[in-house]
Amino acid sequence: MLTVTLSIPLACEESLTPAARRLLEAAREMLERGEGVIIGSVPAERRPDQAPAGRSPARPISPTIPALHILASSRSVLRDEEPLPLTRLEFDLLLHLVAHPRRVFTRLQLLNAVWGYEHAGVRTVDVHVRRLRGKVGVDVPLVTTVYGVGYRLADDARVTIDRTG
Fold it and tell me: What's one Pfam family the UniProt record gives for this protein (predicted)?
């Protein structure tokens, strides 16, 4: 058994260094797989819901994160039961990421899997991710950027797929 104590300031997760971000992701994955245990509690002065003096939290904590529901057979997406107009490529990109929830994809891998070719510039993926995030809304965690690598589905994304007719 190995015991590890982490002290990572989470007031603004976006400001973490790439190494700290990778360490945090690895710890989250271990906990999700049941390979790790949290013992004890976070001291009151270090709780993530409290921002340091003079700073606001990076993302306000919302009691309900809007849910996305993908209807695969009709190629449509509902955001809290309201239709979300997506292009063919935006839909395919979303479906691919949701089908592989913990996997990080490089831009080139996404070009192959979603577009079906590598001939377009890899920045094409960035544009489509940005448009997808914009259409879904900033209040819905959806696609996480893994700096220096590519993209993956966000940990707290609430997305379901209906593959039935």
Answer: Trans_reg_C
**If you search the block for the tokens 């509902």, which residue do you land on?**
78
Residue 13: which pLDDT band, with cuts at 50, 70 and 90?
low
Using CA atoms, how far apart are residues 164 and 161, in angstroms rounded to an integer?
9
Quickly list H helices, the chain.
18-32, 88-99, 107-110, 123-136
Tell me if 131 sits within 8 A of 123, measured CB to CB.
no
The Cα 106–Cα 128 span in angstroms is 14
28 phi and psi, to 5 degrees?
Answer: -60, -40
Give the residue from 133, 142, 145 showing the smallest Cα distance to 104. 145
**pLDDT confidence of 46, banded at 50, 70, 90?**
very low
CB–CB of 123/115 below 8 Å? Answer: no
CA distance 144 to 122: 17
111 close to 88: Cβ distance less than 8 angstroms? no
**pTM: predicted TM-score of the whole model, two decimal places:** 0.60
